[in-house]
Amino acid sequence: MLHYAIVFFIISVVAGLLGFRSVESGASKIAKVFFYIFLFLALLVIAGSLLGISLFV
Fold first, then answer.
1. Which domain does 47 fall in, by range?
2. Which of 3, 18, 23, 52 is the most buried (most CB within 10 A)?
């Protein structure tokens, strides 16, 4: 997930530099969604490991 967030962030920056505002806006929103999904899953794994719950059985 973090990989996709970084890819869409780079697309957003490049599109912004080239003046494609609609592409920049869309890529930025997609990057935010992927980052928040990554953050949620990372916190879920950390909480599971602290509680001793094996999530990958």
1. 2-51
2. 23
